[in-house]
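Hi C.,

You asked whether I'd gotten around to modeling the 383-residue construct. I have! Everything is below, sequence then structure, no commentary in between.
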Amino acid sequence: MIRNILIVNDSHLERKILFSKLEYAYTVFEAEDSDVAYEILKNEDMDIIILDNLMQGETGYDIATKLRKNEKYDNVPLILMSSNESPIDEVRAFESGFNAYLHKNTMKDDIVPLIKSLENKQLSEPVNVLIVDDSRTTRTMLSSTFSKEGFTVEVAESGEQSIEILQKFKPDFITMDIKMDGIDGFQTSKIIRSNENTKDIPIIIITAVDTAETRLKSIEHGISEYYVKPFNPIKLIQYVKTVILELKRQKNQTVLIICKSLPTQHIISYTLNKKGYHTISINKTEEAMSIINQNKVDLMILDFEENKENINFKICKELKTAINKMNMSIPIIAILSIFDKNIIVEAFRNGIDDYITKPLIIQEIIERISTRLTAIKANKNLK
């Protein structure tokens, strides 16, 4: 638990801004230079130290380097407060031993969430990450960032090398550059998504390319998140902790997704995982009953194939009949390619309980499915 925080900054105003944000929850100490800071550290134990990057005399980088050589402070979280925002500056910060990077323009809003993130730093279980980037600077920065958080890190300089590594290393998530020599990030992601053993691994794009086209392409390739260089590594860590690590936790309700489109399959699966639901994805309807027999399934999502209404209705009716014969009640939500009243009515007649039309809207997916699963949970609690 974090109790004591030391702010080392030669700007009286900046110290007071941070002090005013932290004084209600923590005991805050202030130092205008390294000499005062070292004197405080002799007499008090600190749980977090916030250092300005540029000060008269010793800079924040100098102080951090010294503290990391001191057994008492080798593991204490250090936050760099800087007015710069560049990959080079961030690499220098992490090489000096900092755990987080705070920009002065946003420090008033960012400081409390940042400290909360560091407060929850300890991992309850191992986390593996694969970094795929042809930039040595980016690989070094990301590797340092994740290593300091206790993650097990593997790096690849190309898409081809990442595919080889994935044959023996199973990451919990992957960071991927788009533009690389050989196969690019999108081609690499497509290969990963086509492999049964790796298709559900979250992929985070980290790139200097930021266009509407590349962002759309990312969604089509099942990308989980998109970061543009330069970026703040601590925001990436916060995202990983609050979203990616949620995928490792045990979920108490299961959704079976039957869909031939891997990107669509991944988007739905990832969206539900973030809300705390467990998902099983298959692309063949014939496998559905086997899955239901082996797992507790609370809800099914059936993607209707475009222009094959009669086949879709038949599949839906067969699934519903088979489920009823097993004395089970599993709602079916259909994904329809078009909004056609006749098709929707016929779909309900053949057993669907609800529907979503394409193009998929994330919020609608969450609301429709969450409503159904909440009702199921409530009914079970009443019994």
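If it helps when you're writing up: The radius of gyration is 25 Å.

Thanks,
B.
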